[in-house]
Amino acid sequence: MKKILLFILAVIVLIFAYSEYKDYQRFHPDNANIKIAKGFDVNYHDQETVFNYYNAVEAANNYMQMQWSVNEIDVRSPENDDEETKLAVAEYGKKVAKVNYYKAILQQSEELKSQGLTNEDIKNFETKDLSVTDYNKAKRALKEKQMLLKMMPVKAMLAGEKSAFVYELQKLLVKKGFAIPVDGVFESITSDAIKSFEKQNNLFPDGKIDVITLEALMD
Question: Of 45, 63, 93, 115, which is least surrounded by CB within 10 A?
Fold first, then answer.
């Protein structure tokens, strides 16, 4: 009889110990805590966002561990549906949402940098709320605009003058609806198209290309 009682006691102890071990493993930081994500931009242009991400992860983990150790509430997989548990679970959900918010920003930045964008590009990209495709298109257009402005001759172009600048100028005029040849030669037909464009846009209609006319053509 004594042996049976000892055996039962041993089983009870083992069951209790196993239960405690399971809870320990279940809520051990290595198993329960939200892990810092891989593949996010630690050099993000706004370093406060990086700090906020780390802080949000820490806050969510501390809250989860505290609720379990102090109130015995498992906010990840609640076993009860009383009001206290519901409030704790809702609060934990908010903290996890904040973690995911900052993580998404930093992971997007890392992805954009892998496509060649810089911190300044990403800052502009986020401010203008464009798609990556539209942002890259706008960036290329700005680069082309800057290059064309640099190519613009200092002196007025003469009839018959041929250059890459004239070729690009004619392409811009065609985009604006003028039916002219795109051959890189500055003839009267190109000058007349410039004059017509200037009239349409309330610019001085002299048929000569200047910075103001060129920028209007590129808009």
Answer: 115
Whether 116 and 153 share a structural domain: no
What's the burial of 91, exposed, middle or buried (CB within 10 Å: 0-12/13-18/19+)?
middle
Report pTM.
0.56
Amino acid at 151: M
Structural domain span for residue 166 = 139-218
- Quote the CA–CA distance of 8 and 30 in Å, as a whole number: 34
pLDDT of 2-59, one tens digit each?
A: 556 554 554 454 454 445 445 544 555 566 788 998 889 999 999 999 999 999 999 9
Please state the length of the chain.
Answer: 219
* Residue 56, in any domain of the structure: yes
Residue 133 lies in a domain: no
- Residues 217, 33: Cα–Cα separation, whole Å: 58
- Comparing CA positions, the residue from 36, 34, 86, 84 lying closest to residue 64 is 34
